[in-house]
């Protein structure tokens, strides 16, 4: 009887164990597929406070290779599997071995492979575009001073935050040690333990909906077409998703049906803004857009007001030895503004933030603009001040390229943790300093070239001057506040001007050239109409690697017109590439605001073709008289100086032009009213 009872108990115990195992497996599967950060296993223990290491001070330990390999594969590693002395972090990356010249695992081209023959598309560095924009609840006012006031009340508050009050106040549920670790990780302190808990555990998303209107003093007049254009993307039925592509890749299936122009994705709010409409919006922004009035006055405000007055009253100048007047909207105003920038502008750079996301620029690839600007500004003795009270602008020195590289979980389709990381950084800045609170962030700026930058920053950094490569009116780009950043494809960090220039007009035998992979919906349409259809139109997908035939760069150097067709987003490095190789750019990208738009007269040296006019592309180009083409090609060569990176900045180069765009925007934001 006893043996039978024990046998029954044993069977029941085994059944119970099997049941527990099954439940555990089901729970693990649910966690794995539902959690955005891939840290499923850890979330089952310690009330979600298990530590996750994305990267640490790897050094030469045996764990270094395994950590790096896991990062490359998008996996996560329990902190317990690492040496206990290795500082680790889940959102901040500090104590990391520095990357030389931004070389990383995703870089496609080395300095030794400058001439790209086979893979001709410079945009192949772009990661997956199908993530979900999930962080709708992080509003602008959540990070202004870390206050929890309602948006309309927060800007009315004159409360200042002393530098000593260095605590996070943005609804962060942390114990004192964890709060200190976040601050230390973002501050880049290499002597402290930077272990953090997961972003989803430490900072719960707000339950409150985003404000239905911009706070007073931050936005622009409600009747302004600028605001309507900027908010167009938010009115769509499903604002959390990026537009999907009709054709993911022609290379995957050469027989795949290519959509016609009429099959282009439609949006109920889909308005195409012509270049003349953009010109009007830019001019209107000078009177309609006003940044928040500073909460207390500063001598720097008076200097900006004086600069605005002097720019508006600039004496007429026809030309000079360095600049060609027809290239500019208002040559006299530009020259006076540039002079005043050189004489006046001072910038304070925040020291907080750990490498490589902060303070470690990437100098190669299609995102190089943000890296080169960071590198050259940090090295500037002329524009940088160590005294915040003397600063007209405050620079947030982060890289959107490295933010994606280090924190994005492949195939997660989410960038919540990237946005949360930036939110934590702003909490640190606003709790340590009062500068953001004085202007609501209007005198702060960042320079970002990654495609995701507009969506990642449009809420938590909305008041800032955003210098964006992805300058799309339909994705929230605002005239009078944002700046269009030139996307430059730097193949050699040591020799950024390598192979500059091209054939003279008389030797440019090709009418038009394009080559590239099928990013987005537009390029398949371009190929449908023009690939292998006309000997004058050299329109390719991925260029075949054939020995003895012209490669990508040689085609650009030998073409009259270089087609700059949008990919997933409106921006393309081909715009600057065309200028680099002295080829007249033909921009096919609706609602794209070209770089330095407030300064340059783009119609004097570039051609703009609406997406719907692709079938008529050759006729449009042939309708341009030869005399007009020669004039435009000459102007491309003259404007080229504004788009070149030099090892050390020179007057009027791209570094100074980016700086001038930011300076000019801030000068005309501020008002004496």
From TrEMBL:
Compartmental location: Golgi apparatus membrane
Exostosin GT47 domain residues: 342-622
Family of this protein: Belongs to the glycosyltransferase 47 family.
Keyword Ion transport applies: no
Disordered: annotated segments: 83-133, 154-268
Basic and acidic residues composition bias: residue spans: 100-112
Primary localization: Golgi
Composition skew (Polar residues), residue ranges: 83-98, 162-183, 221-237
Organism of derivation: Cinchona calisaya
Molecular-function GO term, any one: glycosyltransferase activity
Membrane-protein topology: Single-pass type II membrane protein
Alphabetical keyword list: Glycosyltransferase, Golgi apparatus, Signal-anchor, Transferase, Transmembrane
Cellular component terms per the entry's GO annotation: Golgi membrane
Protein name in the entry: Exostosin GT47 domain-containing protein
């Amino acid at each position: 009887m006893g043996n039978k009872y024990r046998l029954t108990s044993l069977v029941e115990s085994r059944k119970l164990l099997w049941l527990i195992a099954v439940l555990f497996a089901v729970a693990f599967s649910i966690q794995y597929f539902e959690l955005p950060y891939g840290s499923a296993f850890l979330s089952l223990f310690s009330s979600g406070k298990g530590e996750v290491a994305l990267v640490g001070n790897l050094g030469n330990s045996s764990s270094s290779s395994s950590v790096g390999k896991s990062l490359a594969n998008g996996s996560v590693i329990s902190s317990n599997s690492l040496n206990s002395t290795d500082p680790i972090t889940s959102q901040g990356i500090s104590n990391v071995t520095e990357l030389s010249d931004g070389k990383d695992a995703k870089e496609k081209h080395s300095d030794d492979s400058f001439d790209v023959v086979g893979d001709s598309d410079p945009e192949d560095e772009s990661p997956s575009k199908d993530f979900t924009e999930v962080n709708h609840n992080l509003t602008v006012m959540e990070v202004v001073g870390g206050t929890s006031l309602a948006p309309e009340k927060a800007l009315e508050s004159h409360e200042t935050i002393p530098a000593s009050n260095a605590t996070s106040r943005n609804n962060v549920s942390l114990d004192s040690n964890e709060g200190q670790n976040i601050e230390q990780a973002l501050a880049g302190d290499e002597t402290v333990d930077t272990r953090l808990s997961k972003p989803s555990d430490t900072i719960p998303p707000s339950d409150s909906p985003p404000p239905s209107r911009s706070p007073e003093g931050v936005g622009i007049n409600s009747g302004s077409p600028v605001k309507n254009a900027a908010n167009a993307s938010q009115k769509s039925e499903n604002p959390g998703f990026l537009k999907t592509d009709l054709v993911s890749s022609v290379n995957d299936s050469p027989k795949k049906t290519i959509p016609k122009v009429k099959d282009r994705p439609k949006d109920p709010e889909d308005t195409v803004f012509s270049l003349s409409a953009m010109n009007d919006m830019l001019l209107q922004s000078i009177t309609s857009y006003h940044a928040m009035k500073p909460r207390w006055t500063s001598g720097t405000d008076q200097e900006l007001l004086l600069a605005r007055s002097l720019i508006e009253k600039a004496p007429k100048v026809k030309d000079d030895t360095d600049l060609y007047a027809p290239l500019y909207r208002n040559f006299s105003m530009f020259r006076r503004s540039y002079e005043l920038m050189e004489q006046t502008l001072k910038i304070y750079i925040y020291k907080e933030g750990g490498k490589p996301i902060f303070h470690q620029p990437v100098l190669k690839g299609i995102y190089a603009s943000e890296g080169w600007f960071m590198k050259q500004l940090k090295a500037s003795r002329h524009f940088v001040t160590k005294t915040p009270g003397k600063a007209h602008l405050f620079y947030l020195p982060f890289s959107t390229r490295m933010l994606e590289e280090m924190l994005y979980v492949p195939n997660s389709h989410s960038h919540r943790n990237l946005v949360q990381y930036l939110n934590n950084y702003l909490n640190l800045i606003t709790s340590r300093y009062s500068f953001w609170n004085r202007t609501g962030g209007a005198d702060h700026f960042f320079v970002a070239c990654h495609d995701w930058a507009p969506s990642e920053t449009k809420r938590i950094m909305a008041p800032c001057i955003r210098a964006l490569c992805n300058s799309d009116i339909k994705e929230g780009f605002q005239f009078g506040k944002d700046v269009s950043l030139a996307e430059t494809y730097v193949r050699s960090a040591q020799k950024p001007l390598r192979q500059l220039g091209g054939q003279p007009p008389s030797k440019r035998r090709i009418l038009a050239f394009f080559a590239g992979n099928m990013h987005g919906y537009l390029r398949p349409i371009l190929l449908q109409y023009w690939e292998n259809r006309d000997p004058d139109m050299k329109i390719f997908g991925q260029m075949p690697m054939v020995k003895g035939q012209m490669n990508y760069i040689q085609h650009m150097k030998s073409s009259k017109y270089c087609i700059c067709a949008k990919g997933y987003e409106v921006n393309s490095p081909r715009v600057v590439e065309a200028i680099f190789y002295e080829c007249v750019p033909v921009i096919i990208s609706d609602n794209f605001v070209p770089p330095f738009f407030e300064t340059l007269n783009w119609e004097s040296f570039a051609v703009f073709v609406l997406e719907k006019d692709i079938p008529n592309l050759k006729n449009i180009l042939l309708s341009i008289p030869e005399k007009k083409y020669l004039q435009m090609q000459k102007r491309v060569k003259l404007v080229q100086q504004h788009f070149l990176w030099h090892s050390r900045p020179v007057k009027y180069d791209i570094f100074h032009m980016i700086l001038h765009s930011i300076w000019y925007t801030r000068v005309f934001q501020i008002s004496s009213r």
